[in-house]
Amino acid sequence: MRHLSLAVIVTGLGLGLGAAFAQPQFYNTVDGSPLNFDDAMEEGRDTEAVKEFMATGVNIYNENPEVMAQAEETYNTMCSGCHGHYGEGKIGPGINDSYWTYPQNETDVGLFSTLYGGASGQMGPMWGSLTLDEMLLAMAWVRHLYTGDPQTATWLTPEQRENFAPFKPQGAEEDQS
Ligand code: HEC
């Protein structure tokens, strides 16, 4: 049972980190059924980021300069066609502001569940197309595209929240550099 061994690793890591974060539970965004990761691709299951996320619900790729280019590329390959280059929405809804059809997407555990298990219609499950690690990368870019008040960006650490500037489409970012 692959799932079992992942659970053992995750539990071990959770103990190591102490009780600061509860081990997250994952539920299908539409029907609320529990998700497990038996169907996940073999590759990318045991990266540091995946282990940390399964234990704490914290995505260490958020605002991590070392992976932002990869995060952007993953989003642009897998998501922007439906959600727009800036997450502003196309055939899929806007995902760059604080309004969510499914409020669980306000948390990274909820967002991960939406990617892994899908939602309705065109928003199919991603477990066959992205590794667990790539889902965390795509999520980091979705969060980077956030245009809302940084204080509502609960997925960031308090330090990151202080420094986070809401994303400005239309080349505003280039003007700064
Ligand atoms: C083929 C088109 C398509 C692709 C590709 C796609 N989505 Fe979606 N997505 C949709 C549609 C349509 C919905 C609305 C589904 C619903 O309301 O149940 C949606 C819903 C969502 C939601 C829920 C939004 C809310 O308001 O709660 C999130 C989050 C999301 N997508 C993220 C992503 C990410 C990240 C990717 C890339 C890994 C992606 N999607 C790829 C079409 C797509």
UniProtKB/TrEMBL annotation:
Q: Which GO terms describe its biological process?
A: methanol metabolic process
Q: At which positions is heme c bound?
A: 79, 82-83
Q: What InterPro entries does this protein map onto? A: Cyt_c-like_dom, Cyt_c-like_dom_sf, Cyt_cL
Occurrences of domain Cytochrome c (ranges)? 66-146
Q: What is its main location?
A: periplasm
Subcellular locations according to the entry:
Periplasm
Tell me where the signal peptide lies: 1-22
Gene Ontology CC: periplasmic space
Top-rank taxon = Bacteria
Coiled coil location: none
Q: Does the keyword Transferase apply?
A: no
The answer to keyword Electron transport applying to this record is yes
An annotated Gene Ontology molecular function: iron ion binding
Function as written in the Swiss-Prot or TrEMBL entry: Electron acceptor for MDH. Acts in methanol oxidation.
Protein name per UniProt: Cytochrome c-L
Species the sequence originates in: Paracoccus haematequi
